[in-house]
Task: structure prediction
Amino acid sequence: MSGLLLGAAAAFLGLAGGLAVGSGFVAFLVVLDIIPRLTQLTKSRRFLHTYEGAVIAGALFFTWADFYDWRASMFPLGAAAVGLFAGCFVGMLAAALTEVINVLPVLARRVGMERYIAWLLLAMILGKVAGSLFEWLFYIGEG
Result:
């Protein structure tokens, strides 16, 4: 009986956690208007429904992949391509979020770097790339 109760508690906590994360993701996309803003910036408004469908399909696919513990065996160049696309997705999402809330102009004004905003952005990008490379090559490589 305690095994059944423990299983029910685990299922409840998993469902509650999934709903919380999913709700946060949907709120992030809808409230901040990320996808429509991204289509406006890239001048691809006609693909709005395609982008929304791709986000939904990706969420469903990777949810199932996680549930069934799918593994993808790839050669290193294939893994690099997947990493490149994942990085582009995260970068575009971060750029859309930054565009929506106007973080960089406010930051540049507050620290007195309005004339150097392009350099500030480049420094942020290179810092992220350098930090990621350090983690992948040295930190994870040791484990």
